[in-house]
Amino acid sequence: MATTIDISTFIEGGYNKYANWYEVDILGRIGYIMKTSARVDFSNDMEYFRVKYGGTPIFVNHENGSQEVVHLYQGQVFKRVSDYGNWHMVKVADGYGYVWEAATEPADDSSIKNKNNGLKISENKFKALDDLVVYDTSSGKRVPFATIKKGAIYPILGDYKKYANWYQVDIDGRIGFVNKSNTELQFSNSTKYFEVIADNLPVYAPGTSNVFVYLKKGEKFERVQDSGNWHLVKVGDKYGYVWKQSTKPTTSTNITNLNNGQVSNSRAFKALQDVKVIDTSTSSRKTFAVLNKGVVYPVIQEYENWYKVDVMGRIGYVNKSGTQRTFANSDRYFQVIRDNVYAVSSNGTEIIKLSKNEIYPRVKDDGNWHKVKINNEYAYVWKDSTQSVMNPNVKDLNSVYTIPKRKFTTNNTTQIFDSNRNVIGELKGNQAYNFIDIVGRWFKVDVLGRIGYVYMPATSSILSYYDMSLDEMLNIQMRVSPQTQIVNHGYVHENYINLMNNGNTGIVIANALNVRTTPSINGQSNSCGQLQKGETVEIIGKVGEWYKVKYSKSCGGWKDADREDVLYFLNPDNFLNYNGSEIFQFLKLSQYTGLTADEINNKILKGKGILEGKGQAFVTAAQKYNINEIYLVAHALHETGNGTSRLANGVQINGKTVYNMYGIGAKDSCPITCGAEYAFQKGWTDPEKAIIGGAAFIGEGYIHNGQDTLYKMRWNPDNPGTHQYATDIRWAILQANSYIGKYYSLLDKYILYLDIPVFK
C-alpha cells in the first residue's frame, strides 16, 4: 500500500536527489523511501513537475469542450503556472492548459536546458496535419519531449521564415522544434500574400455573387487584410474577397511581376468578354488571372494594342480586343457611336440630336451620363451611346463666345453644320435655340461647346431675353411721359359724379367736367375733352379719387398715356398673331431675307414712279449692308411719295443730276437743296447709287445700333427710357401696319426674321 508523505519531512531537495528514492527526516533521523511505495503531494510553492507516464496530455478548454493539444513525454520536466485542484495549470500555445496532477511528481528545473528566456510567440500559427514530435535541440541532439496533436492550431516562436524546414515553438516555457512537412501554415493578420490552391478561384465583389476576376491555380497574390474566412484584396480600384480555404499563406518569393508603386492613370476599360491577364515578366507569358465579362477595370498605362493593369499587386497586360475603352473623370470629350442620340434636359426632354461619329466636349462625368452644356443650361447624353476618345481632334471648339439670352425658332427639322458643312446636330421643328451671332444668312450657335451654323431661312423668329420684368420696364417708360392721341377710356374726379345703378353708371353734376387721360390733374398734358352736366357715363373702374369711365375719342393732340394703355402696347405678348400685320413690329430690320428683284418689282414697285424696276438695287443694298429689303423699300416709298418726289427724280447741282431716295440731309426749311447737296457729296448720280448708298446711312444711323426692330426703336429694351424714336405708344404698330405689313401683304411668300422680346 502506498504511503502519503508530508512534504515537510523531506530533507531539502530530498525528493529529487535520487532517482528511485526519497530522502526524509523521521524524528531527527535520515532515512530513505522507495518512490514506487509513496506519493508526494504538491505544495503551492512547487514550480515544476515531472511526467510519470508517457503521453500525458495537456488539455485546453474551448467553447465546445476540452481538447488534447499536446502530449508530454515520460520523464520530462515542465513548469506549472499554478495549482488548480487536481490539475496543474500550464502555459501552452498562446493560452493556458491543464495537466492531471496524479500523472506527475514534483521536480525542479535542473534538468531543463531549453528554457525560453524571452523569445516571444508571433501571430503566425500552423495547423498540425498529423501528430508532430517536438524536439529539444539544446544538447546538440534532437530529443523528443512532447507531441503536438493532429488538428491543433499552434503559434510559432519568432520569425516563421527563420528556418527552412522547422518551426520553433514554446511548450510550457520550453523551446522546441517541429518539422514543417506535416504542418499547414495559417493566415495571420500580418500575412501579406497567399497562393491559390484551386483553379479559377473567383474574386467576389463585396456583398454580392458578382465576380471581378478568376485566379489561376499556383499563382501568388497580395492581400489587403484578413477578413474572417476571406481575404480582402484590391482588384483594380475596388475591393474584393477571396475564399481563404482555397488558398494558403505564402511570401512574395518567385513573384517576378510585383507592382512596385505603379498606379492607375484614371483610364479604364470594360471587358466585353472574359479576357486574360498576361504576366510578361518571363518568356512563358503565362496567364495568371482572367477578368470576368462586364467588369470595368482601371489602367496603369495604355498602349496601341494593350492595357497595363494591376491585379492584386501584380502587373499584367490585357489585349484591347474584347474590351471597350470607358470614360475617366478627366475626359473632356466623347464620340457618338450610335444613331438617334439626343442631348436631353434634366426632365428628359430631347433638346438636340447629335451626329454619329462626331466628337463633343462634356462638362463632367455624371454616372451613366455625360453632363454637357447647351446654351446656358446643363443637359445630359447617355454614356453607353458614346465612347471615349484617346487623342481627340475636335474642330470649331467654342473657346471665346458667351451665349446671349436670345433665340431663334425653327420652322421644321433643322440641321446644324460646322465650318466644313458637316452636320453636327439637328433641331426639331418649332424649337427655340440660342444663337451667338448672325453671319450672313446663318445663325452662329453653340452645340455642346462646338461652333455650328443654322441656315436662317430654316428659322422663323428670335427670342431676346431681358433681365427685367415687364412691370419694371413699364415703370421706366412711365417716367418719360409716353403719349397718345386716341383713348377708349378716361378719368373723371369722383366729386363731380353722382353714382347710379349700383355704381355701374354715373351722372355728371358739374357744368363742364374735364376728362383726363390719366388719373391726375396735369393741365393740358392729360386733358382730353369735357363732359357736360347731366351726361351719363359708364364706370368701369376706380383709381384713388378718380372714376375710370368708357370714353372713346381723339384728344386732338398728344396727351399723357394711361399706365394701362402703355402696358398694352409695351407687352409683346399682345401682338404675336403671325397672321396679322402688327407682328411686323418685331421684324429684324438688320437682316437680308432673300427676296428677288422680280418679286419686289412685280409685287411692290410697279407704278411707283422712278422706283419702278429698281428691285435689284434694293436687293443689292440689302445684301451689302444687311438690311431688310422691305424696310428699305418702305422707307424709300414713304420719303419719295411713291417715287414721285423731286429729290427722287433728280436735281441739278453743279452741273450734275443727283438723286436722293430716302430724304437724307433734307430739312423742313431746306427740303430740296439740302437733300441734293448731300446726294452730290455722296456721288449719287443715278437712282441705283442713291438707293444703295442711302442704305449705308440708314444702316449706320437706324439699324445697326442695337435697335433693329420697330419695337426696339420705340421702347429700347436694352436701355429703356433713352434713345427712343417716338413718344407715341402706338408708333411701332402704326409703322408695322402702315408700311412694313402693307408691303409684305403684297408678296406671295417670304421669310420673316423676327426678334421678340421676353421679359422675366
Automatic annotation (TrEMBL):
> Known InterPro entries for this protein?
Cell_Wall_Dynamics_Protein, MGlyc_endo_b_GlcNAc-like_dom, SH3-like_bac-type
> Under which name does UniProt file this protein?
SH3b domain-containing protein
PROSITE patterns documented for this protein: SH3B
Q: Specify the superkingdom.
A: Bacteria
- Native organism is Aeribacillus pallidus
Q: Can you give the residue ranges of the SH3b domain? A: 503-568
Q: Which Pfam families match?
A: Glucosaminidase, SH3_3
Provide a Gene Ontology MF annotation, just one: amidase activity
